[in-house]
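Dear support,

I submitted the protein below through the web form. The confirmation email said the job was done, but the results page showed an empty box. After a refresh the structure appeared. I'm attaching both so you can tell me whether what I see now is the final result or a partial one.
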Amino acid sequence: MRQGQVVATLPTRDTTAEQLAALMVGRPVTLRVGKTARQPGEPLLEVTDLVVLGSLGVPRVKGVTFAVRRGEIVGVAGVAGNGQSELLEALAGMRAVESGRIRWQGRDITDTGDRTPRLMRALGLAHVPEDRHRMGLVIPFTARESAILGYHRESTYNGTIRLNRRAVAAGFDRQAAAYDVRPGDGSLPTSAFSGGNQQKIVLARELDRNPDLLLVGQPTRGVDIGAIEFIHQRLVALRDAGKAILLVSVELDEILALADRILVMHDGGIVGDVPRAEATEQALGLMMAGAVGSA
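What the results page shows now:
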């Protein structure tokens, strides 16, 4: 108590996770993802027999085949280090493909100049990397500058000689309002923002372009309960708008909450492709451990 007022109520044995989360963030929080059944549309991304090497030159992705369709979230479940990171980087144009094919909206782009991060974005593919500090942001930059990374060559931001600072500031202000980025001061260094708000800056930057496909790795790693709820809602809204999402997460609860279909990776290969309605935590865990079974 402070000056006769109760400032917090300690949780009891009967306190639910949502009640505890509400105590932490100071408002009602739902940890359940409201998601209606969807009928996926045509395939946007088709991957066939894909092999990708790791930094040591050994295969990390070993002959995987799958498709991602409009209007669905495809979750990739697996213990960290089983090829998920290399798969996302190859699809985003950041890593070379050793063999196999990648098709985008029916067109083979495996060996074309389109498979660079910049041109993949131009095709309608956005990428939220797993490590926001290493690959998603430049921490010493201002938040406004981090909010245009990868899109800084767009005519919206480029003047005749230098960046249009007014447009950069206006773009951040709009995104910060739409994605509840706090504080809303884009002149602050990115390092001044919490992990959850840094993640919102990355998500706002990528989703603001209304991509056809979002590649997202560990979307809620290191973020607070309130930001998790917000991020999950945004991902479901994108899917409900007819877009596609390929979601990599080591959090099995997150995969089960968000995905319409689940790919399970083990030792660089896909050992399961399971509709969410048929998936159980136990069966997925067995597949993640290499004990291939039926979900």
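Response: this is the final, complete result; the empty box was a page-load delay. The chain is about 30% helix and 20% strand.
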